[in-house]
Structure formats: C-alpha cells, structure tokens
Amino acid sequence: MLIAKLLVLAVPTSDSQQNVPTHYKDIVHLPAQQQLQWRAACQEELEALQKRQVYELVNLPLNHKVIGNRWVLNQKMDGWTQARLVAKGYSQVEGIDYSEIFSPVIHYESIHLMFTLAALENWYITSLEVKMAFLYGKSNEEIYMKQSEGFTAQGQGSKVMHLLCALYGLKQATLQWWRELEAFMKPWVFTKCPLMPESSFTNIMMGN
Fold first, then answer.
1. Would you state the pLDDT for residue 119?
2. Closest CA to 139 of 43, 56, 51
C-alpha cells in the first residue's frame, strides 16, 4: 500500500485528470465537449455489457430486492476516458445474494520475484490491460440491479437489470472470475499451484 501511494505521488497529475468527475451527476458541470466524452464512455461500457450478455432487462420478481450501482469514471495518462458500471455490493445479503467470496490472489512477493528474475536473466517484461475481466464469470446467484444512472432504457423505466454474469463491485465477482479462468485453463493442461500458508511462503522468500 505504501509503495502504491509513493508511485501516485511520483507521477504528476495532469489538468485533465483533475477534471475527472467523481459522480455521474458532476458531468453536467463540465464543458460541453467533455460532457459528450464522458457520456460516450458510459455508453461504450453499457454496449460492451450488452454485447457480452452480462445482464437482461426484466420486471423485478416478487419477493426479490434490487441493489444499486454507480458509475466509476477514470482518465488514463494518455487521455483515454474510461467508465465502469459498479454494483453496490455492500447491500448484498450473505446467503441470498452470495454464498462464497474467497478466491486466490497473487502475493506481492511473487511479483518482486519475477522482476528480480527478469533483471538477472535480462528478460523482456510487458503488460496489457484486460477490459472487463470480471464480466466473464457466470453468476450462480439471482441478482437484480437498478438501471444505470442517466441511461434508463426508453419505455422500460420500471424494469431492472438481471445480472447473468458477475459485475464489478459484487462480493463474489473475483470468485466467479477465478472459476471461469480455471475452467478455461484446465483443457490446456495447466496445473494450478497448491495453496500455501502465508507463513510458509514468507519463510521460503527469506531463505528459512
């Protein structure tokens, strides 16, 4: 966490990044051209969700609750505007909206090890940005969400989003993504590493 904060401080913030709206309603206070830019980013996000069949518009079934969502807006260093529709997972109820949430995560030590090996072996390291990683995990629970702010479907304002896939913000999103990735990798004869207690991993890294 400290390293991340130091990196943020080390990278200068451009004027365009300072004008990133915190909430969708803040867009109206921006110049007309920027308003069009941010709304286009939101529209692109919704079209991508529809293309990947992440949700369907339905009438809310009886005895089911609906969770909220919000737009998370960001601007990359190259000026590219990005909008993400994020579910308000804090309103989910365990046993109804989700059952499990655990999924394996990478240790920072593993990343440090790979960088060290790359430096010693003169390896070339590159990175890529995966768009909508969580949205490929099929949802095992019946979850309904409000339509996104500013983009209510015409003539279908009373309908809600039935989530067919995990969405950013859902408590089980990471787990569903992991299950989807695991199912994809197995036919390629990849074998996952056994889980190791954190204390054992630390001892190995320290040479104990």
1. 94
2. 56
